[in-house]
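Per reviewer request, we include the raw input and output of the structure prediction for the construct analysed in the revised manuscript.
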Amino acid sequence: MPNYVKNRLVINGTPEQVKEVFDKFNTHIPAKLHTSYTGSVICKEIDNSNYNVGWFNLKTGMFERRNAEPVLGLPDGWEFEIQQPIDHFPDFNKVKPQPENIFNGDLGREEEEMCKREGRPTWYDWNRENWGTKWNCSECKQESHNTFVFTTAWQGVPNLILEISKAFPELQFEYEFADEDTGSNCASFVVLGGDLTDSYFPESGTKEAYELSFKLRPNIAEEYNLVDGNYEYIDSDED
């Protein structure tokens, strides 16, 4: 599993300008049935006291759950699980689109050799080189009318923020990120006209790096004490 990085983007402009940026680089994903990798619809009991899961096959009409015989139809007391609609901003594939011939499937030795023979980029190599991270962002949320947070794998994406800025050179963008490894791999930037006007890279393990991590993940600040000018993790096992 990768380290996950919390990102925050502030767009300094009028509400109309912020909406224009949002609309250009957002992908709205409507509500849909939550399905498993096999295509079956994930189901849950309506009674939330116990979170029991089942699977409904839309083609056969059969319902299955662990340690029980399959039955035809959805039993009483069960419902389909719905994935709520989300706004995926910023959608990296709108900031810097993947090429049409990219290979987006599971990557093994055979697939990598095939891509080399055919001259096709793989999603893994292309994404890292062009986006700076393995995958598109996730856990996208809007904190205020001009502030957006999202999650990336391993790294922040300052180069993509520069691309967004190039499309709206009159607006100032404030961008910062921090690794889930508290006090490391964090930075902040100010971007205008597609150029960095300010950047800040606190050294890992310093007081400044910890405080930038706390800014993005304020709930973890209570797990640390300031001791002799720097932060130390509070070990709950210690007396």
